[in-house]
Design brief:
The complex is a heterotrimer of chains A (about 350), B (about 550) and C (about 290). By secondary structure, chain B is an alpha/beta fold. Chain B is built from 21 helices and 20 strands. In chain B, strand 4 and strand 5 form a beta hairpin. Chain B is globular and about 80 Å long. Chain C has about 290 residues and is an all-alpha fold. Helix content of chain C is about 70%, strand content about 0%. The longest helix of chain C has about 40 residues. Classes of the chains: A mainly alpha (about 350), B alpha/beta (about 550), C mainly alpha (about 290).
Chain lengths: ~350, ~550, ~290
């Protein structure tokens, strides 16, 4: 009960603290986008082919002739109303495009995070339990190598080995084979939607398509996760209270599971949050290599076509997700660490 | 004659380090009879902790027993395997560690931790173990035990955490408890309470106790027999009355002499040192001359509401030495920082030589002309020396900044003069702090402070982190400097014996307020306040004639 | 603490001698240092080392696998990959070094002052850093390069800005931890003011830890620059740069032409590896506590 009340206080406090960050993000995006070359009105109208009248109307609406603070107000008003502009290349409102493409990016990121955690956590723990052993050296070697590999190179090399040489993976283009059917759009997550409709053949097809890009992203974050797990576990195992537990004759498994792991998991939680945000950034590279139809490639294509409304929408989206993820991690941390409630 | 419960015979322990093998124990032997209390005393590096860890089989990965035997209850456990040791630990022999808060699991309730120990050795249900844990907490005199059992270590005081550890150690009724510096870091009154509790429980239940400590008084007061260790070897072993009354070995004699007692003198701490210059009483104040230091209604209140210093007033004359005594939370360190103008007061005045230095903000005080006249020596010299500065640099810094000594030759001269004054060999000036011993670092800290010829030297527990023998030498140095240079000392400490020797007057503080003030000898003989009397009574004594009831 | 032997003092150990001592005991660091030196050398001597002109096309000779004439093969326009690789070293190292220097110098000083003084300045900078960090790396870089154009200095600037919050936070934490240390109080008692303490005492003290970060950062900066180029936001064709080379080669890998991607990828990996391993070695050299 006490934990819940203090958790509630923490949520409130963190939300309040997050507001300036979100505002700052909005303002910074506004500034950056207005600095872009070209006439924003033209781009937000949907292209030079839009009628001059429409462009002028949009210019008045966007307030480009008004002083900057007024423009800022218009901008906030638009954002609040969900009006992120219209994409030149797709012709649709940016919000619609983002809603269509976001599940692809999220599915990729979450799968990658899952794979990375499942691989990194046991490796890190094992390496800490047996310092100096073969496992320890292997893990340290993997970590050193892992941070050196550029994601896009790893992805391409994996394609070369598993698609070209071995033929195990399907054509690395997009989420699903053009000839396979797509499931009904329940959540937008192919794996979930296929499972919900019981279409296991489709599930396998989607999963095999997802595997290579997810592994590429997972490799990218495997190293910092494993390294942090190992370091955290080592630090905890060297702690005085572990020595006390041994001195009192507690059984080994209990010491590791109840005493060591619960303490070691706390910093890992923090770094999982950081890792998730890093992945949001690296999304762009993987989506490009595998032609994955996510938000990042949407924004990138738009950028190269000088279509700026989607770019603005993408930047806002990413920053907001980051703030939300940080909030969630903070809350989880507060629940996991009973000391944090004492604030 | 029955066999001793714990019999350690010619124990050798070595550690593998990057620089080769280091021998921590070189043939240590001692024995503890069933129900007896043995004290093992020694300074840092003596190997006393290593011996206890070896007995419990808790040595670091890099350490190993290379020779000798450990017998517990007739059974040879020197090379006992993991399973065998686990069976014994907590159930037959237990250990209590220093720094109890760090020794407990920070995210697990204390009751649960005690229950874990119980269930590791006895087939108890979760509810039974919980109930027994609460009963144990009551046995160690923790009030409101049922509610406290759900508390986390950081919610309990240091003394309470140590009681929890005692409860954990006793939970399965072991035959032997090893206590490794169980009261270091605790206030002297808490120390007495914890030691009384521990020794009472141990005698009540017929357990044997091994008390490892650097505090000779503690060993003398609570143990049947005391073993003195130095550099991995046993020097001497005897009942405390004989050991401290008539020590046979030279090392023991030096150690006993160096221990401050209610009747010791500075000169008596180091009988082999050259004699001190005569003590000149502080000259009377010429009429009209201002007092050296006047503190009026000084207060320090922090933004979160804690009041560290509450309406403290006192005064000092030039050449006088005044002691500030108190336990943790008494505000003595805060007062030392306020007087030295490292932090700002929230109320009251600090007047130095007639000028109100309290008005100058701490941020700007480095530019004030009085900066060089009030200097400070810190507690942990290792922490107060810039790790990137050599000893020379550390001493030279204030000379450069405050005395304006810039050119190389004068600087070298001044630094060397300061080093000579504190007995620091000139060859050590090029060394970095991590290459110096504790005593050498203390000397550098003192040289740095006096190099700019201050009028008032504030000393914040300058010897608290030092071994007793090193402390004796440093105290001697401080007294000699005071007499030679006519410095005034504001000496902050929790150790009443030390303060009594060095200071003519002393002030007793408690929770930010002055409890008592007066001449040191008078306070010791006849304390007026009850708190002062409690403090004095709590000091561990090792000669019967020093037990001041 | 046993008394240190009173033997003749070793005198002030020079940094060079200490460095040699560390390297002798740590072959991995020595190898990393050699690798880094090699990279710098290649970058400096590029025009003389490269066997062919990196931008000269020769379509007749396109897409040749590695051979005696072209050690690393040729790309889709017949350009020698080895020569392009060598010239690319120059660009990538230059971008990384300038970006990291910029963000380190500015960020560490700002962070140190924030950590020491706290208060309103600290709060304001903290909020600004929060906002900056809310933008995932590439997102911000993309936006900046899109806004400012595809010139090299803009890539440097964008990478520097991305790294800035990291140094600010790091320096701030390191300084805040040391702010209450005894030796800082002693420095104040010795007559040193705030600025002098931050610049002369605290910054040098946190240097060993920052040095490790700088090294890791250099590797990171190279990956960033290459990534941006891969996306088409960095350096433009036909300039030889590792990221662009991978981008151009990406199209052909599904057909089995691995050498266009593998060699630039390997170069990237080796460069980052050297910098990372060097970071640990640097910490040992600069930290006086390791000196004996």
């Amino acid at each position: 009960m006490r934990a819940l009340a203090s958790a509630g206080r923490r949520v409130g406090g963190r939300l309040l603290a997050a507001i300036p960050a979100v505002l700052g993000v909005l303002v910074l995006t506004f500034l950056v986008m207005r600095v872009l070359p070209g006439d924003p009105a033209v781009y937000f109208a949907g292209g030079p082919s839009a009628g001059q009248a429409q462009i002028d109307q949009l210019r008045a609406e966007m307030g480009l002739d008004k002083p900057v603070p007024v423009q800022l107000m218009y901008y906030f008003r638009d954002i609040a109303g969900g009006d992120l502009g219209r994409s030149l290349t797709t012709g649709q409102p940016v919000l619609t495009d983002i809603r269509q493409r976001l599940p692809a990016s999220l599915e990729l990121t979450f799968s990658a995070l899952l794979i990375a955690l499942v691989a990194a956590l046991p490796l890190g723990i094992l390496a800490a339990l047996r310092p100096g052993s073969a496992v320890d050296h292997l893990v340290r070697f993997l970590c050193t190598m892992g941070v050196c590999m550029p994601t896009f190179v790893t992805g391409l090399l994996l394609i070369y080995v598993f698609y070209y040489l071995l033929g195990w993976s399907p054509d690395p283009t997009g989420r699903i084979d053009i000839f396979a059917g797509t499931p009904p759009d329940i959540t937008g997550f192919l794996l979930i939607d296929f499972a919900l409709t019981g279409d296991w053949a489709g599930w396998r097809a989607a999963a095999s398509q997802l595997l290579l890009p997810a592994v590429t992203m997972a490799l990218f974050v495997l190293a910092p996760l494993a390294r942090m797990t190992r370091a955290s576990m080592l630090a905890v195992l060297g702690g005085e209270f572990i020595r006390t537990a041994r001195a009192m004759g507690l059984p080994g498994w209990r010491i590791i599971l109840v005493y060591a792991l619960r303490n070691a998991v706390l910093p890992v939680l923090t770094i999982a949050g950081i890792v998730f945000s890093t992945m949001l950034g690296a999304n762009v590279l993987v989506e490009k290599v595998f032609s994955w139809p996510g938000v990042a490639s949407y924004a990138l294509d738009a950028l190269q076509a000088s279509d700026y409304a989607p770019v603005q929408g993408f930047v806002l989206l990413m920053a907001t997700i980051f703030v939300v993820v940080n909030l969630v991690i903070d809350l989880l941390y507060g629940l996991a660490d009973p000391r944090a409630g004492a604030e | 004659m029955t066999a001793p419960l714990l019999d350690v015979e010619d124990l050798h322990v070595a550690f593998a380090t990057r620089r080769g093998t280091v021998e921590a124990l070189r043939g240590v032997s001692f024995a503890v009879p069933a129900g007896g209390v043995l004290g093992i005393v020694g300074e840092s590096g003596s190997g006393k902790s290593v011996a206890s860890l070896a007995v419990m089989g808790l040595l670091d990965r890099a350490g190993a027993v290379t020779a000798g035997r450990i017998r517990f209850d007739g059974q040879d456990i020197t090379r006992a395997g993991g399973r065998e040791l686990r069976r014994l630990r907590g159930a037959a022999l237990s250990m209590i560690f220093q720094n109890p808060r760090a020794a407990l699991n920070p995210i697990r309730a204390v009751g649960a931790q005690i229950a874990d120990v119980l269930r590791a050795h006895r087939p108890l249900s979760s509810a039974e173990a919980k109930a027994r844990a609460v009963a144990l907490l009551e046995a160690v005199r923790i009030r409101d035990a049922a509610r406290r059992a759900a508390a986390l270590p950081h919610e309990l005081s240091g003394g309470m955490c140590q009681r929890v550890m005692i409860a954990m150690a006793m939970a399965c009724e072991p035959r032997l408890i090893i206590a490794d510096e169980p009261t270091t870091g605790l206030d002297v009154t808490t120390q007495k309470a914890v030691m009384d509790l521990l020794s009472g429980l141990v005698r009540e239940r017929g357990m044997a106790l091994v008390l490892i400590t650097h505090d000779l008084g503690l060993a003398a007061q609570y143990c049947d027999a005391v073993t003195v260790m130095e550099a991995g070897r046993v020097v001497e072993s005897a009942p405390p009355a004989r050991l401290f009354g008539a020590p046979r070995e030279a090392y023991t004699r030096r150690l006993v002499a160096a221990c401050p007692t209610p009747t010791s003198t500075i000169a008596g701490l180091t009988p082999d040192a050259p004699p001190l210059p005569p003590a000149a009483p502080a000259p009377p104040l010429p009429p009209g001359a201002p007092l050296l230091l006047e503190v009026q209604n000084l207060s320090k209140r922090y933004p979160d509401g804690t009041v560290a210093v509450d309406d403290v007033s006192f005064a000092m004359r030039p050449g006088e030495s005044l002691g500030l005594v108190g336990e943790s939370g008494s505000g003595k360190s805060t007062i030392s920082r306020l007087v030295t103008r490292l932090i700002d007061p929230t109320g009251g005045e600090v007047i130095f030589e007639g000028e109100t230095i309290g008005a100058v903000p701490a941020r700007d005080f480095h530019r004030a002309p009085q900066r060089s006249r009030v200097q400070i020596v810190f507690q942990d010299a290792g922490e107060s020396l810039n790790p990137r500065f050599s000893a020379f640099d550390s001493i030279a810094d204030p000379l450069r900044r405050l005395a304006g000594v810039r050119d190389r030759t004068s600087l070298h001269q001044a630094v060397e003069e300061a080093a000579d004054g504190v007995g620091l060999p000139r060859a050590l000036l090029d060394r970095y702090p991590h290459q110096l011993s504790g005593g050498q670092r203390a000397r550098v800290g003192i040289a740095r402070a006096i190099s700019v010829r201050p009028r008032l030297l504030v000393l914040d527990e300058p010897t608290a982190a030092l071994d007793v023998s090193v402390q004796a030498v440093v105290l001697q140095l401080l007294e000699r400097l005071r007499r030679e240079k006519g410095l005034a000392y504001l000496f902050v400490s929790h150790d009443l014996n030390v303060v009594r020797m060095l200071c003519d007057r002393l002030i007793v503080l408690r929770q930010g307020r002055i409890v008592e003030e007066g001449e040191s000898d008078r306070i010791f003989r006849a304390p007026a306040a009850e708190y002062t009397a409690q403090l004095i009574a709590a000091i561990p004594h090792f000669r019967p004639e020093h037990a001041l009831a | 603490m046993s008394a240190a032997p009173l033997a003749a003092s070793p005198g002030r150990p020079s940094i060079l001698r200490h460095a040699a001592w560390v390297l002798r005991g740590n072959p991995v660091t020595a190898a990393a240092l050699a690798g880094t030196a090699l990279l710098v050398l290649v970058a400096l001597l590029a025009p003389w080392l490269a066997p062919y002109d990196p931008v000269a096309t020769n379509v007749a000779n396109a897409m040749r696998p590695p051979s005696a004439a072209h050690w690393f093969g040729t790309d889709q326009l017949g350009r020698d990959i080895l020569s392009r690789l060598i010239h690319g070293t120059r660009l990538d190292l230059a971008i990384a070094a300038s970006a990291v220097s910029l963000s380190f110098v500015v960020g560490a000083v700002i962070g140190a002052f924030c950590g020491y003084h706290g208060g309103r300045l600290d709060h304001a900078v903290g909020r600004f850093v929060d906002v900056l960090m809310a933008f995932p790396l590439f997102v911000l870089a993309m936006a900046m390069v899109a806004a400012l154009g595809n010139q090299v200095q803009n890539i440097v600037f964008a990478t520097a800005v991305i790294n800035l919050p990291f140094y600010i936070r790091f320096a701030r934490t390191e300084v805040a931890v040391r702010r209450q240390a005894g030796w800082v109080e002693a420095a104040r008692a010795s007559g040193n003011g705030g600025s002098r303490i931050v610049l002369g005492f605290l910054l040098p003290n946190i240097l060993p830890n920052v040095a490790v970060q700088i090294s890791l950062n250099l590797g990171w900066a190279i990956l960033n620059a290459a990534g941006l180029s891969f996306l088409g936001l960095g350096v433009t064709a036909p300039t030889p740069e590792w990221g662009i080379m991978v981008a151009e080669g990406a199209r052909f890998i599904t057909a089995g032409n691995w050498w266009l991607v593998a060699f630039p990828g390997l170069a990237l990996m080796l460069a980052v590896l050297c910098f990372n391993l060097l970071g640990d070695g640097l910490r040992d050299i600069l930290d006086p506590r390791m000196r004996t």
